[in-house]
Amino acid sequence: MNDKSEIQELANLFTNYQKGFIYFAYSFIGDQMAAEDIVLESLMNYWENRYKLAPDSNIRAYILTVIKNKCLNYLQHQRTREEAESYIQASDMWELNLHISTLEAINPGKIFSDEIQKIVDEALITLPEQTRIIFMKSRYDNLSHKEIAEQMGLSTKSIEFHITKALKVLRIALKDYFPGFLLLLKLF
Questions:
Q1: Contact in structure between 23 and 65 (CB atoms under 8 Å)
Q2: The domain that contains 87 carries what CATH number?
Q3: Are residues 60 and 42 in the same domain?
Q4: Neighbours of 72 (CB within 10 A)
Q5: Backbone angles phi, psi at 57, to 5 degrees
Q6: Are the C-beta atoms of 11 and 20 separated by less than 8 Å?
Q7: Which domain holds residue 118?
Q8: Which region, left, alpha or beta, applies to residue 106 given φ > 0 means left and ψ of -120 to 50 means alpha?
Q9: E strand or H helix at 58, and its extent?
Q10: Is residue 163 within 8 Å of residue 134, measured between CB atoms?
Q11: Taking every annotated instance into account, which residue ranges of this chain make up the domain RNA polymerase sigma-70 region (predicted)?
Q12: pLDDT, tens digit, 9 for 90 and up, residues 28-49
């Protein structure tokens, strides 16, 4: 066969069977554009492998098999994507439920109760003086990092370091109490 007759054969195959192949793919995957892409890729697959096939091969069956396999790959990919999305949604839902239950469990009256305030005071006493002063200015006097830095002649990075250091000590001291306490502590 010469090149011109092979190209004509491919054109005839495409013209005569394209709609049926697309309908076949679409009936399984339900996406018109993806079905058209699969059919085109399958025809290209046939064209690239035509010399490897036996001379008496059923070309339509070969192309249909390629389409079937590409549809299976497409659907398996869709399933994997949907499973991943479901997992992400479940994780998001779990996190949302955790936030709701934490908020429901928080009793603002207890957060600042005498017992907890005593633990906070004891933890603050263990801090180096400069760290304690910086933390108290931030949380109790509601000064910004910049304001504290200006008052104490330090950089804002240094202020952030001391506050982080104080929060670590408080996190350890209050670990058995309220999961949301440190979050609230950052707010006040």
A1: no
A2: 1.10.1740.10
A3: yes
A4: 12
A5: -65, 145
A6: no
A7: 108-187
A8: beta
A9: none
A10: yes
A11: 13-79
A12: 999 999 999 999 999 999 988 9
